[in-house]
Automatic annotation (TrEMBL):
GO biological process: methylation
Protein name from the UniProt record: Methyltransferase domain-containing protein
Superkingdom, natural source: Bacteria
Domain Methyltransferase stretches: 42-136
InterPro entries membership: Methyltransf_25, SAM-dependent_MTases_sf
Gene3D superfamilies on file: S-adenosyl-L-methionine-dependent methyltransferases, Vaccinia Virus protein VP39
SUPFAM superfamilies, alphabetized: S-adenosyl-L-methionine-dependent methyltransferases
Annotated source species: Bhargavaea beijingensis
Length: 247
């Protein structure tokens, strides 16, 4: 999904993401960091900054990066309203530059699945490696192959909320382990009428072995690969896979 397609999505993103376990993500990062106080954290694919705010409240010095300027505008407003300090940059993660001295980098909530070419995933890992201090940690999660080939294709999916509704159709993508999504949003306007917004999303995952290979090629030592918040290795029917790697 490019920055343009996020424009209307940004205005209702938080409503649609209310079921995301932000607290569990924050705990995952807190556990990896130990004492967060004063540590520099790079939140890659930060969106509207909900999770970035969680990190800031934990004591991290945060920087957020996202492809969408509209999402970042919401994130900046969030931080200003909360009186929190944070820096935000509009950059694709595979072209990320100008960042260094970080203790942690996080690519959460399957943001990496929007990078659909393995060479670009490799570029992301190299960029993150360059941004981290020695001993710095990269944490990210992705959809599993099972979720992409089975669960995502069990649509269409619908939601009917007070401010927004959607119809979400999914199709197998052209590349292996990819899914194309066509989503019709109906966003309520102040006058009570609804604005229709059509969007196209493309996500792709890779096998855990592919991510491991790309991490190692970028120079990382892999610390753990787990699934579904269990702390256990991925199984055939795991839905979400979590990686931790150290520079």
């Amino acid at each position: 999904m490019n920055g343009e397609s996020y424009r209307a999505f940004a205005s209702v993103y938080d409503l649609l993401m209310e079921d995301i376990p932000y607290g569990r993500y924050a705990e995952w990062v807190r556990h990896a960091a130990g004492d967060a106080s004063g540590l520099k954290l790079l939140d890659i694919g930060c969106g509207t900054g909900v999770l970035t705010e969680c990190f800031a409240r934990e004591g991290f010095r945060v920087t957020g990066i996202d492809l969408s300027g509209d999402m970042l505008a919401v994130a900046k407003e969030r931080f200003e309203a909360a009186g929190l300090d944070g820096a935000f940059f509009e950059q694709p993660m595979q072209e990320m530059e100008g960042h260094s001295g970080y203790d942690l980098a996080v690519i959460a909530i399957d943001s990496l699945n929007y990078v659909t070419d393995d060479e670009e995933v490799s570029a992301v890992f190299r960029n993150v490696y360059d941004a981290l201090n020695p001993g710095g940690r990269l944490l990210f999660d992705v959809h599993s192959p099972y979720k992409m080939t089975e669960l995502f294709l069990d649509g269409p999916f619908t939601a009917d909320l007070e401010e927004v509704s959607y119809i979400w159709h999914t199709y197998p993508g052209e590349e292996p382990l990819s899914v194309e999504s066509e989503i019709s949003f109906f966003i309520r306007r102040p006058d009570g009428l609804y604005m229709r917004q059509e969007e196209f999303h493309l996500q792709r995952t890779f096998t855990p072995d592919t991510y491991l290979r790309l991490l190692i090629e970028a120079g990382f030592d892999v610390c753990s690969v787990t699934a579904d918040w269990t702390g256990n290795p991925p199984a055939e029917n795991s839905e979400r896979i979590f990686f931790s790697a150290e520079k």
